Amino acid sequence: MSDYRKTLNLPATSFPMQAGLRVSEPLRVAWWQERRTYARRLERNRTAGPWILHDGPPYANGELHMGHFLNMVLKDVFVKIALLDGKWAEFVPGWDMHGLPIELETLKHLGIADFHAVDPLELRARCRERAIYWFERQRDVRMRMGTFGEYDRPYRTIDPQYEAVIVDAIADLVERDQIYRGLRATLWCIHDETALAEAEIEYENKTSPSIYVRFPLSSYQRAALEERLSSSGRVRADEPASILIWTTTPWTLPGNAAIALRPDAEYALYDLGDERVLVAQALAERVLGERYATATCLASVTGEQLEDLHASHPLYDHDTVIVLADYVDLETGTGAVHTAPGHGADDFETGMRYKLPILSPVDAAGRFTAEAGQYAGLPVFDANARIIGDLRARGMLWRAEDIEHSYPHCWRCHHPVIFRATAQWFISMERNDLRARALAAVDTVAYTPQWGRERQRQMIERHPEWCISRQRTWGTPIPALRCMQCERSILDARVARAAAQRFRSAGADAWWSDGVERYLPAGFACPACGGTRFEQERNIVDIWFESGVTHLAVLGRDGLSWPCDAVLEGADQYRGWFRSSLVTATAIRGAAPYKHVVKNGWVNDEQGRPMSKSRGTGIDAQEAMERYGADVLRLWAASVEFVDDVRFGPNVVEQVTRVYRNVRNRIRFMLGNLGDLPVDAIVPPERLGGLDALALAYAMQTFGEIASKYDAFDVHSAYLRTIAFESEMSALYFDAMKDPLYSRATGDPRRRRAQSVLLAALEGFLAAIAPVLSFTAEEAWQALPAHLRAGRDSVFDLSLVRVESSERTAQAWTLLRSLRARVSADGTLRDFEVAAEVMLSKEDRALLLDVFADDEHLREGLCEALVVSDVEVRDGVLTQVRNQRAHGEKCARCWKYRSLGTSAAHPDVCRECAAILDG
RNA sequence: GGGCCGUUAGCUCAGCUGGUUAGAGCGCAUGCUUGAUAAGCAUGAGGUCCCUGGUUCGAUCCCAGGACGGCCCA
């Protein structure tokens, strides 16, 4: 028997089975850059109109982790989908580069303990270097992921033009009277006499007094309470009654402005014989102790029903008011929380909500001021004992003891810190109906998932007055002035405009280096005292404000649309960037800056727990790409439901790697069979018939389905459809076409038709997967002979296929698949050993005649599709297949069973093969 | 402690408005193939649809409670 292998057209391609992504991907990134692949496609798409995904800026500090990878790759997937759809999908990546974390890292890097001791310009220069170091690092890693974007001109919050946008936005808000100066409770170190940020505190154990205090009710107040309790006559006017509170900071009692109750908790008034006390029912036993046994519960009511009632201050001659707060817990204390807005974060928010006075009778060194009356001059912690003594003397102390608890301390001097109210700049959520307008703007936006809208609404509803000033150095200055005559702080729009103008060319450092005159309009005088001498305030703006104006800096310019089409970030941004962007946009432009908010989930480890270096499950994006290759990880990003939290780890990657190899091999099969196809031999779709036409239609409608999944941001469904498709296509069409492709003569029309289908399917497939498997799709496209690429330099020059699905096509496909499976399931006869007897129901026969036109084509088509030597078609009640042994002998070349010996030169092959061998 | 989200085969996930022998891909087992070969084809095993109640003729799907996990807030 001769070896006819060499006479066959076996697959051949330069597209290797082994991917070697680690090596090839960085080269491909450079290749895309050199060829300006993205830029050129954008230029071609320019007239089609924009589709803009606006980048929420990552913070330029530290390595990018897998959460960044997921987020950045998904953004890229959406950009590329739009690009392949012919849209002008300009993507400008951005970075958040000011702020405390960088300042702290820089100080640590420089070994400097007290930032007051550093020249601000020097510190800013060092911070800039540090931020740029991380920016460059992150940019390179982000490009390594294979993402497209304007990396030559990203937006950066530290760039002069960007700083100018920030300051102009402040000017806009000042003009709209949206900004005011007010008090805010901040963490304060009385030892270092400085405000501290959240990141600058450490929790340590501390012993504090734990006291229960009576807030007495006057007769008038008791009457009001009685009304709410509907306990007519039971609260007697002549017996003392009080509300009990618990605190571990007695010194904050002078700052008390309210008592907070939990709205949904039950509060009860207990008669103890000689007095009556109101506490949360759930805590009564613990609070009342041994007196609980003899106490009588007179009435109970929810906290909500007690709102706005008054009580008397236990130390001073003034009232305090009952307010509601969700954070009041029923685990400790009395369920009635002493609220001092000047001395606590929660208290402050509550104070803002109820417009309570922000009392903070404490100076920078932690001593009571004259406002605190009899305690003036006392250090606050020393005052605790005095206050407890006074409470006892006035009969207001219910109980006192000491407890040890976790308490915030200064990270540098390790002294306990306090909350102290200081003057800050605020954006008002109420002026100009900003909150209401922001809520209205939410309703104009689409949310994925849909509950995101409700989440966003809540975040706006609960948005406290927005404190935008920080007493730090690494940021954009708030261009406020201080009158040197009356000490008043002044934020004037004209000054702000001048600052913006100045920063646009000189950068914000100018605020520190310029004299104040440069910013003063002609004839400027203090609106309060008429003074004319000023100095610059040294506050910088909250970085959430900086990132909240990215839409002003990036959108609406160079053809980018405002609002943008979509934003995509993690769920933490409902509170962060989604919110800050929405608030600034509503305040300044009167509308939401985006049309669609898409949220991506968190990346956890394989056990569903947060990834952590210490647990050994932490891996940053760069490491992961070095280990697995970006494309495998990009496929992972598509293989998980990104809207939910997702899992990542070696086993997950292992699995997706296998899927990747499948995809790769199916591409390889198509490429391998296209090497010899001349352009003029390509058969146009309308001249295809039978199995070819069916396979092509099936492929095209699948690509259409994938495209519509993409439209809905449903990358995961597109992924499922894609892998199901390549598996289907391989099992039926590729398998069936091996015989015609391999054993027919090179130029045989049957072979050319199959090749034409493969070419069209390959193009559509590569376009469909290119948004996700960018590297592999491009590699495959470059492995296709140049004449078949037809001038389309890159896979990103292709277009997504958009065709309607047809039910008949899917049905015919499924029918053929099941017929083929029934032949293959035969354990005794191999494919070509079979002569199949195919019985078809009436419906199935009609279905197949749609595909194969007539009985003769049907028979031939089934021979191919079932990969058997012969087929006999019969009518039946049910569709079934019976395998018979094929007549004739096995052709040594094409393996089909035929009568051999027709050619004397080649006695062991069939007539068709002999003809090919003879040329 | 509060709000939101999730829990379907070993893994990643489908299951539209309650009625299906609950599906796909990967993995696994078995068989075929050795002319896609560190590939290809077929078959098969594998699920108390997190738990407990309830509504219903009927619940993976609706309701209530709980467990576990995540995010945000405290």
Structural notes for this entry:
The chain has 29 helices and 31 strands. The protein has 919 residues and is α/β, with parallel strands linked by helices. Strands 10-8-9-6-5-14 form a 6-stranded mixed β-sheet. Strands 4-3-15-17 form a 4-stranded antiparallel β-sheet. Strands 11-12-7-13 form a 4-stranded mixed β-sheet. Strand 30 (889-890) and strand 31 form a beta hairpin. It is elongated and about 125 Å long. The two termini are 20 Å apart. The protein binds one RNA strand of 74 nucleotides through helix 12, strand 26, helix 20, helix 22 and helix 26.
The neighbouring-strand order within the major sheet is: 10-8-9-6-5-14
Q: Note the gap between the termini.
A: 20 Å
Question: What's the total count of β strands?
Answer: 31
Biggest β-sheet, characterized?
A: 6 strands, mixed
The value of Rg in angstroms is 38 Å
Relative strand content: 15-25%
Helical content band: 40-55%
Poorly predicted spans: none
Instruction: Calculate the mean pLDDT score and round it.
Output: 91
Q: Tally the helices: what do you get?
A: 29
* Helix/sheet category: alpha/beta
Overall 3D geometry? elongated
